[in-house]
Design goal:
Elements (H helix, E strand, L loop, with lengths): L7 H22 L7 H4 L1 E11 L3 E13 L4 E14 L3 E17 L2 E16 L7 E16 L2 E8 L13 E7 L2
Antiparallel strand pairs: 1-2, 2-3, 3-4, 4-5, 5-6, 6-7, 7-8
């Protein structure tokens, strides 16, 4: 019997994440008379990604939050949920999180270091391929150009493993948005 692609624990994790993100979003928009000093330095953002073709679909939701210590330094956390399917070949779900550090030596340049840990679950349609379920770490060093709340750049995974990575190569472009 084939193992179910989406496990109960995966669904619970996603539901907890959605509820937590909804709560944080609502708390952020609620009127506040005296906002604490801490929350004045917290910025929310993240990424949404879609990719599709005639036989392929991929979607990602990755909310994040950073604490800006000053104009030069910030640190934060992010959650990541990705789903992908190639018709007649495989289906995958990735769930995980990351910790990020940001350094802006000048306002327009952002240098980043990010550690990401993802649970990767791949289910293949063809029985000659074994289904996969493993954890994949990524340590990314990046540089980007910032304008307002948006940073566009490239990052490099120093732990890149060609056999197990979820990306085609160690270099990945990125767009970060924080409000």
């Amino acid at each position: 019997m084939k193992k179910p692609f989406i496990t109960l624990n995966s669904l619970k994790t996603v539901l907890v994440f959605i509820l937590l993100f909804s709560f944080v979003s609502q708390a952020q928009t609620a009127p506040q008379k005296h906002k604490s000093e801490f929350w004045q330095h917290v910025h929310f953002g993240g990424g949404i990604g879609l990719s599709f073709g005639s036989n392929y679909f991929s979607g990602t939701l990755a909310p994040s939050a950073i604490y800006r210590f000053n104009d030069m330094f910030a640190t934060g956390v992010a959650l990541n949920f990705s789903y992908g399917k190639e018709k007649y070949f495989y289906e995958n779900i990735m769930v995980g999180g990351s910790v990020i550090g940001l350094f802006n030596p000048i306002r327009q340049i952002q240098i980043s270091a990010e550690f990401e840990q993802l649970s990767v679950n791949r289910s293949f349609d063809n029985p000659i391929y074994l289904d996969e379920n493993y954890w994949y770490p990524g340590l990314y060093l990046g540089v980007g150009f910032s304008t307002g709340p948006v940073t566009i750049g490239i990052r490099f995974d120093v732990l890149y493993d060609e056999e197990r990575s979820i990306y085609a190569n160690a270099y990945n472009p990125f767009v970060r948005v924080y409000f």
